[in-house]
Every structure is written in structure tokens, then in C-alpha cells.
Amino acid sequence: MNNLDLKKFNFHLLIIDDDQKIRLLLKKFLENNGFRVSDAENTDEAKKIMESLIFDLLVVDIMMPGQNGLDFLKEIRQTSEIPILMLTAMSDPEDRLDGLEIGADDYMTKPFEPRELLLRIQNILKRFTSNAIERANNDETNFGPFSFNLKSSNLYKNKIPVHLTTSEQKLLNCFCKAPNKPFSREDIKNELGGNIENRSIDVAIARIRRKIEIDQRYPIYLQTVRGIGWMLQTHSEKINQYNL
After folding, report:
1. For the chain, what is the domain count?
2. What is the pLDDT of residues 174-191, one digit of tens each?
């Protein structure tokens, strides 16, 4: 997996730092090295952006007005395993250890060399992608904090079982077998052998969303595809697209 060409995956990064100069410099540097990059000046802005976009890695400064980076990291780790690299002007090893204990994937002290930051980001993403490929080969579909086992049709959130009815299991299994692919009602009926009515599909989707979405009005995972139907949005399209 060390030979993975990361540019093929079109990774999307989010930089969270109250220093506009650092944000813009990093954004330009990382975009020049093949990444899509968004930025936010504080954690409130970052959380709003993350309600509608899925990111592959976060670069988070610790010392920011309002919620600091460590508290943000702690909050994110309650629901997500997204890779997070912390930036800080602190040089005390204890401060770095605090971040790593909470769940940071790596740590850099300001000032830093952008090339080193790039290498650390690449190493994190290679490790994360390798793990995702291994899980995909083990009949699991992962999205956010959720993992769905295709053999048992069991859903887990942060490794804790989530109860699903039989109809919910069958429908989610349908989406998880082909993540990031839109399904129409007819597609779903064909996948399930025609043993489900339109109303039952709508009800099951609404119930699944109540169990996996933060806000059902703005679903991140089980999304509506206008003019077609629905699809399960995960990170794995970057893997499936290149048949890795």
C-alpha cells in the first residue's frame, strides 16, 4: 500500500486555523500537491461546513478563539474516526501527548516546514486508505462512525450495535453492497426480489435516517439523488473507483 497514488483518490482536506495567512498558504500549497482543500477560521464555521461536506482529513490548530482545537478533537472523536492532524505553537511534550491521547493521528509544532506537513498528511492518508481497503475486503461498509456487515446485516456505531428491523436491514444491505451508487425505487425492488412496496421503501429510509443522520433534513450519508432516488454516501467511492 506504500505505493498508493494518492492523487487518484481526490482527497478533500479541511484546514481549521484562525490565522488567515497560514490558512491561505497551506491551502495553496496543498492544492498544488493534488488535494482539494477547504478552510475555516474557527470550529463553529468548520462544523457548519462539515454538515454538508465529507472530508478525508482535518488539519486543526489548537489555539483558537472560542472552542480550542483539543476540545474540538474530543467532540469529533465521539462520532467520527476521520484522520486529524493537529497544529500548535506549544512546544511542551505534554501538550502534544494530550492531543494524541484524545485521538489525534499526528502532531506538528509551529513554525513548520510545509513539505514535512505534506509528508505527514500523505502518510496518514495512506494508512487510513489501506485500513479502509482491508475493511472493504472483509465484507464491511463504513460511513462516518458506522460500520455495516454485509454477511450478518448488522449495523454498528463506534462498534456499538444499532437495532434495525428486518426491512431496514434488507434496504441498508442493498445500499451497502454498492455504496455511492444511486438507486431508484425500481432498482431497490429488483434487488429485493420485488417483495417491497413504494410506501415501505419510503418508511424504511426515513427510519434508517433517524438512526444514522445528525439532521434528517440534511442527510450526509443516506442522500436523496434528485430525479433518481437515493444513495449511501461513503468515502469508499475513492477506493471502488479505481478497483483497489
Report:
1. 2
2. 999 888 889 999 999 988
